[in-house]
Amino acid sequence: MSGSLVGLLYLQVLYVAIGAALLQLLGLRGWRRLGLTYMAGLAAVGLLAAELVLVQITLGLVELTLLALVMGVTAFLRRPRTAAREHRKRDLLGLAPLAPLVALLGYALVAVGRRPLLEFDGWAIWGMKARALYQLGGTANPVFTSDAYPPLQHPVLFPSLEAIGFRAMGAFDPALFHVQLVLVAAAFSFALLDLLAPRVPLLLAGLVTLAIVSAAGTVQQLSNGLADAPLAFFVVLGVVALARWLETDETAVLACAALFLGAAALTKSEGALFALAAAVALLGTLAAWNRARLARAGLAMLAVLAVLVPWRAFIAAHHLPNPEYSLGNAANPGYLSDHAGRVGPAASGLAERIASGRFGFLVALTLLGLAAALVSRRYRELAFAGAWLALSFLGLVLVYWISSVPVHLTLVWSGDRTVTAIVLGGAALAPLLAAPAWQELEEDLTRRRLSRRAALLAPRQRPQSPR
Amino acid sequence: MTEARLRTVRLALAGLLAVTALASSLKSYPESWRFLHREHAQFSGYTAQDRLEAAAYANGIPIDAFNFFRAHLRRDDRYFISAPASASFTPGVDRSATLQTFGRYYLLPAIAVTTPAQATVVLSVGTDPKALGLPLGQTVRDGSNPFWVAQVAR
């Protein structure tokens, strides 16, 4: 890769430092969770950069170093005096799935380290916007405001992060897209383990994480340089954090969920849809089972929507059109009725892509998780996961319904990618849904092993009869 | 269903979940590894310039023209790409639109405009810029290639 690799590496350290300070401030002991700290730092810097770029403030290594210092000192001064140490059991078998995972991601880093941006949307949308932010500064230029530079409706978190990477390297090199995506995938893997592991045995969490990250549909998206993979990673971490919060009521985990869903909402338009689906699923679940927690959940979900306000204001101020669809049509019965013929092809086209072999058996994992939650009587978790999956899918169908692009064409262009967050999210929720059943299975196996051992030992321990 | 049966189903589902996750990885892992191997084999020899130009090759865009344009554009130029609309080389996008799209990416930080009247420079592919009827200043052609860079006279 051209440019300074040292600068790029230093940037990754800054993401970790900022994430660690942020998690500490939120009440999680961040520095021990490398994946979660990196993803929290990336999401926080991405959100900040995407908002600041709208007022022509750009972030580089100097600004991020200062931010890391200020946050680090604040976190240090506000650290709890008597923080309980978190003891994790050494579980070598549980760590086993991580070896192939690390090998695959290491090879991915080598394999895509010199890859160009070849996919049309990669260079025509994300590459162009990132390059413009790097070379022109903020968004007060025709690239973000003139109809000479379509499409204008995409939020700018992903290109802002790439532009920070180019500033760190001191050069524009399309390979950064792929390298950064692989690094994000690695951090995502460990962040998912961090979120799952306290509630789920490490072996199960590791197996599911390996299944998610090694799926061909995931790996191929790491090499295409598009925003769909980071979007899916932010969404997955957000909904898994919400599911964990439902179970544990840890405020810091709810704050993490809001951070990741906020980042998802500013990564792509579908991110706002998935975040909204999560908010409705969460609030609906709490309304039915635990109204006392509604206020806190509502506040967190409001924070997610609030991050969208500056971007929506920018769109309104510059009258930026969305040539593909008008959201108003989603509430227009006449329009929906006139275009009802699109619903069937859109729903079946998306369902086909979800069930396609590109994602291995992740859909089966999701269904098994839901079934395990049902027979374990975990109705609250089941309601949240089921509602999020259903609302996300129906929301996507609605977007394809109101789109002005021929449905078969828009499915070909984007169908494979837009379903990624749903497929990965469902699979990532499965271990949490099945955790009690798995625990029961483990106890059962342990009991059987002990009784077999006892049976083997029994004859030797029999007292000798006196001669 | 009795509690004992429910328990059996729970245990079966938990076991099946782990087995399915393992089976999914066993199915996907080799496929993903082979994909990465192909990517590595295809791109390991690419230079930084190759990576910038690859999008043009992949879409049948004449990169020589765009390198010629880049060499003649200044940072603050507003350019208009003049190219006859013709057969598509990207599904759903005609040839002229593909050239405009690639220009928006490749010719930054110079800025594209939508009409010749807004331009300080006309970049022409396959058609003489004089055909636009604009008052033109210095016009440069890339040898015998049909690419022109023409300053708009103000």
Question: Can you give a write-up of this model?
Answer:
The complex is a heterodimer of chains A (467) and B (154). With 467 residues, chain A is mostly helical. Chain A contains 22 helices and no strands. The model of chain A has no long low-confidence stretch (mean pLDDT 91). Chain B has 154 residues and is of the alpha/beta class. In chain B, strand 1, helix 4 and strand 2 (111-112) form a beta-alpha-beta unit. Chain B has helices at 3-43, 48-58, 63-72, 95-106; strands at residues 78-82, 111-112, 121-125, 136-141, 147-152. The longest helix of chain B is centred in the N-terminal third of the chain and has 41 residues, at 3-43. The chains are: A mainly alpha (467), B alpha/beta (154).
CATH architectural type of the largest domain in chain B:
2-Layer Sandwich
Q: Which value, in Å, is the CA radius of gyration of chain B?
A: 27 Å
Q: Indicate the CATH topology of the largest domain in chain B.
A: THUMP fold
User: Largest sheet of chain A, if any?
Assistant: none
Distance between the termini of chain B: 86 Å
SSE arrangement:
The complex is a heterodimer of chains A (about 475) and B (about 150).
Chain A: H1 5-26, H2 34-52, H3 61-77, H4 92-95, H5 98-112, H6 120-136, H7 142-145, H8 157-169, H9 175-196, H10 202-214, H11 216-222, H12 228-248, H13 251-265, H14 269-289, H15 294-306, H16 309-317, H17 333-338, H18 343-355, H19 362-375, H20 379-402, H21 407-418, H22 420-461
Chain B: H1 3-43, H2 48-58, H3 63-72, E1 78-82, H4 95-106, E2 111-112, E3 121-125, E4 136-141, E5 147-152
Parallel strand pairs in B: 1-2, 1-3
Antiparallel strand pairs in B: 3-5, 4-5
Task: Provide keyphrases for this structure.
heterodimer; A: 467 residues; B: alpha/beta; THUMP fold; 2 domains; 4 helices; 48% helix
